[in-house]
Amino acid sequence: MRMSKLVGRTIKETPRDSELPSHKFMLRGGFMRQYSAGIYGLLPLGMRCVSKIEKICKEEMNAVEGQEVRMPCSATRELWEETGRYQTFGKDMMKFQDRHEKQMVLNPTHEEPVVYLARTEITSYRQLPVMMYQVQTKFRDEPRPRGGLIRLREFTMKDAYSFHTSEEDLKQYYDQVFNAYNRFFKRTGCKNFVSVMSDNGLFGGRYSHEFQMLAPTGEDKLITCPKCKYSANEEISTSPFVTKKSVELSLDKVHTPNIKTIDALTKCLSISAEQTAKAVIFQTLEGIPVVSFVRGDLEVIDKKVRTLVKSEVVTATHDSIVKAGAIAGSTGPMGLNLNNCFVVVDYTIVKSNNLATGANEKDYHFTNFNFERDFYSKLNEVEKKKVIIGDIAAAREGDPCPQCNESLKETRGIEIGNIFHLGTKYSEGMECTYLDQNGKKQYPIMGCYGIGITRLLPAIIEESHDDRGPILPLPIAPYEVHLCVLNRKESIIQEKSEELYIKLTKQGIEVLIDDRDEKPGSQFADADLFGIPFRIILSPKTFAEGCVELKYRDNRIEPRKIKLEEIGNVLLTEIKDEYKKYNNV
Amino acid sequence: MRMSKLVGRTIKETPRDSELPSHKFMLRGGFMRQYSAGIYGLLPLGMRCVSKIEKICKEEMNAVEGQEVRMPCSATRELWEETGRYQTFGKDMMKFQDRHEKQMVLNPTHEEPVVYLARTEITSYRQLPVMMYQVQTKFRDEPRPRGGLIRLREFTMKDAYSFHTSEEDLKQYYDQVFNAYNRFFKRTGCKNFVSVMSDNGLFGGRYSHEFQMLAPTGEDKLITCPKCKYSANEEISTSPFVTKKSVELSLDKVHTPNIKTIDALTKCLSISAEQTAKAVIFQTLEGIPVVSFVRGDLEVIDKKVRTLVKSEVVTATHDSIVKAGAIAGSTGPMGLNLNNCFVVVDYTIVKSNNLATGANEKDYHFTNFNFERDFYSKLNEVEKKKVIIGDIAAAREGDPCPQCNESLKETRGIEIGNIFHLGTKYSEGMECTYLDQNGKKQYPIMGCYGIGITRLLPAIIEESHDDRGPILPLPIAPYEVHLCVLNRKESIIQEKSEELYIKLTKQGIEVLIDDRDEKPGSQFADADLFGIPFRIILSPKTFAEGCVELKYRDNRIEPRKIKLEEIGNVLLTEIKDEYKKYNNV
């Protein structure tokens, strides 16, 4: 390819609103352009990178017996109503009316469309297990698109769905895909990525993993153990908080005028936040209040509450708070109206003694609250069913690892893939069945497997760049070799550079030649912005010695002079060795 | 691939509503499934065919220096308002509101999005010519989706756009793409396709071609000359209608009570339809009446009227007819209100003598109307500007060829591609400029080039099938070889078939093995439905002779027995020779 014709201008200035290095460099290097909020087009350079990512992804999906399909982007409202997700997706789902005023949606994911296929095509246990995948556009009306291709409203995703006759079969296949994902990410040049346990969503199955690219700019908070390699999204990570068991003191009700926060309460009572029970009040989509309690120094993770109550939850309205029998700022377990609400209690509350908590009475709190003694033991069996004890707290740096007790580290990540155990949620929801060996109808057990194709490119640039531009791994770089030609106005240089370009291209090397009459500084700056791993420079000076200079974008070793007649073979060897590094996984 | 695991059931019965053979076979063979009107999903077999079509298409686009991009499916209303097409596309364009109640559209084509890129990325004549292409989903809310993948509301298209500094440069590139298209269609196995001149749309450029697959089931009417190979869409085809020039008789006004059609008029006056001038009344989108006249035996093509008046036209309302001074059923040129309307007159009217036509007076017609004598010569210069003379008639079988006078043939086609001269319509409309050699701003001249990727598969099946299923050309067949295994219950047969399957696959042959315990008839029926070109059959009988049977889906020669140890190499040779047939173009 000739740079003189390449569509995509390089830009010297840092574009406005580009906070992440990847966002900035992809705009400056002409990899992409923004059309509107969360909607981008890929220019030729970006497209070449994404095509290579897609190709490697398909190879790995085919290697685990995946069958490629193409499901449509649009669907009827009725399809999504079969599982109730037409309602629960809310505003994230883009909706439109067709010319006949029929309600349509733009699929944000494809569980419903794939089960639509499975329920006509899969009829017998003999056909299972089976996996279908596609590389397709997804639409999600994100409230806050950000970071260029990191969080888009229209993006390219590889999504895959598997169907099984048993949990064991799914688990075995799940592990295969897990390995395929590790291979895929390594083959595309990802370095610092981890697989972490994650929340697997409402009504989902029993286990799921996210693949996270570790990056300080990431949106997700991760908890990892430096010793045993335990790692989890903060939404799922659990920690056995060791709390002191002291003598239970007697419950006391104290007057706390205008005290409405944990911070104010600790000051008022001269205690630490660890000695309090904090209330956070949610409600289900049907409006049932959910009063949750966690130790005062910790945060409640709403997704964990959701999983325990088995329903989506949102922040409670004033009415819900009243309905629960709670008083905002003075909410505690005792005195709640258990006929009207759920109570979700974190393990830290159960294991602690003598906590301060709200009295459900304006300007009053209790001290020396003990969960079992003062609350739980006094409930009848019906009331006990409304109280759920579990893990709803966010883990923190320094907490003990649940596996090995080592002190946990906190880090940030960009989610680049995920694999989910879905169970029979969708097959049951859409009445998708097969006949087992005994001729009996069964619901297939499903797994699903996503990779954010367009997100992976900026995620890789986040971990692989310097202050001049991206340092792209060979397998996803737009070209293998960037040929800079200095003083092209000298006709012999122009002639020789053309010869070299054609010769290398004929050898099967992907070469981008800078055939513009730009100054060296400008050529090198653009080459840095493109991030192509190998760079050769032909100048009057090197030509006088019958050489070109070979440089590496990552500066792994010092530039070397290579004889003109040898450069083709040197590059072929270097490229081959470089691919080996990524593919030997 | 193992048929036991292949997603996609074969169906014995002809599905309802499937009129075209391709539609029927693609459903019966499990190539695709319908989700809703005009919305289909590709199952693995169909996806493999489409992937191969896409790959060949990209190769040909790259060969003419195309640069692949990926523009988004969605766009803002504002982008489409820049050219006015947000309005003119009407209901064919799917529209939606995002969560912030911003008006969005699903792009039905990408001229506007590509010029959006060009106007920031192309700044200098040095960058031109340049071509960008993509393989991307398009959305068009067709009022009548039909024929499975033939006319969809969501479909995959390859669209390409070129930018040039001069008409000559565009013309030269246009011819290159024309040749690339011919190569592409031949390489995908198209046989009976033609390139025809076509209407190139409102305000479009000066020339355009459609590639049409000749098929009796096609939607488009084509006019072709068996002698000089002239061919055109009926919307564009022109014919020099030879009409008798007789002595001009004197104009006569006759009473024609209740005569409102050409048919009634000819009976009433005992003349032929060729001796009448027929009026068809349109109006522009702004509501200006357009009264068109054509010889009574011919049909008016509205797209030709549109091109002559340079505005979209629709059927006239009653108010428009009144405004033009016309009387429905008695409309003629004389007496129209030329201040309020346009008059478009077909050449056949100008060249004919003594026609019967309306008198713009209820129940009256003129006879012996002569265009020049009775109408045109009597207009002043201002009025003459409102009268447009041109070709607006549909050509018919038997008309003389405009190039060689041979009698034209009528045939039908499925449009599989098109190439358009766009001129500067979009670059001017969106203020996309570059600086020429003199530093002066210029609008790039554009061409655009489309291929209906998902439509091509059924179009090929339309021309290539028998009554048992598709006969797919090797380059787009889902697999190269279909291996039928009879009496697989005999363990030696099962063992040998597995060995053979693995051996052939290792030789790089794409093999589909029928590893189900189906009877021969059922296996052969499914193989016929899949349309894979080479078929080998392993049975106890052939195995006893150490052979397999080699059959051809198109029955080009009789089945042959081939030694088991030779079949791999025989297939490799046959496959190689077969590809050569398609690729030597």
UniProtKB/TrEMBL annotation, chains A, B:
Subcellular location as annotated: Cytoplasm
Protein EC: 6.1.1.15
Free-text domain note: Consists of three domains: the N-terminal catalytic domain, the editing domain and the C-terminal anticodon-binding domain.
Assembly behavior: Homodimer.
Keywords: Aminoacyl-tRNA synthetase, ATP-binding, Cytoplasm, Ligase, Nucleotide-binding, Protein biosynthesis
InterPro entries: aa-tRNA-synt_IIb, aa-tRNA-synth_II, aa-tRNA-synth_II/BPL/LPL, Anticodon-bd, Anticodon-bd_dom_sf, Pro-tRNA-ligase_IIa, Pro-tRNA-synth_IIa_bac-type, Pro-tRNA-Synthase_IIa_type1
Gene Ontology CC annotations of this record: cytosol
Descriptive protein name: Proline--tRNA ligase
Annotated transmembrane regions: none
Uppermost EC category: ligase
Functional note: Catalyzes the attachment of proline to tRNA(Pro) in a two-step reaction: proline is first activated by ATP to form Pro-AMP and then transferred to the acceptor end of tRNA(Pro). As ProRS can inadvertently accommodate and process non-cognate amino acids such as alanine and cysteine, to avoid such errors it has two additional distinct editing activities against alanine. One activity is designated as 'pretransfer' editing and involves the tRNA(Pro)-independent hydrolysis of activated Ala-AMP.
Family: Belongs to the class-II aminoacyl-tRNA synthetase family. ProS type 1 subfamily.
Domain spans labelled Aminoacyl-transfer RNA synthetases class-II family profile: 51-473
GO MF entry, a single one: proline-tRNA ligase activity
GO biological process, one term: prolyl-tRNA aminoacylation
Species the sequence originates in: Silvanigrella aquatica
Reaction(s) catalysed (UniProt annotation): tRNA(Pro) + L-proline + ATP = L-prolyl-tRNA(Pro) + AMP + diphosphate
